[in-house]
């Protein structure tokens, strides 16, 4: 069980890093490569940016839950 949560934590961490890099920052992010730059010049955030925000939040909650469960499992076994 600990091995499963450890692997899930590694996968979620890599996905979180990729999603955060896709977000648009002050100077534009990697999301400009996929057409996010055009939508921001029109005004407001595009549907893709909003969906990226939602996916990042859900993945962040899953990552946090995985960290908590893994910590509890390691505490009870150690």
Structure description:
- There is one protein chain.
- With 78 residues, the chain is mainly alpha-helical.
- The chain has a domain at 1-13 and 45-78.
- Helices cover 76% and strands 0% of the residues.
- The protein is built from 3 helices and no strands.
- It has helices at 2-22, 36-42, 47-77.
- Helix 1 runs antiparallel to helix 3.
- It is elongated.
- It starts with a helix and ends with a helix.
- The model has no long low-confidence stretch (mean pLDDT 83).
SSE arrangement:
Elements: H1 2-22, H2 36-42, H3 47-77
Strand/helix succession: HHH
Shape: elongated
The total count of strands amounts to 0
Low-confidence segments, given as residue ranges, are none
Number of helices: 3
Largest sheet: none
* SSE class: mainly alpha
Radius of gyration: 16 Å
Share of residues in strands: under 5%
Instruction: Quote the distance from N terminus to C terminus.
Output: 14 Å
Provide mean pLDDT, rounded: 83
Helix content: over 70%
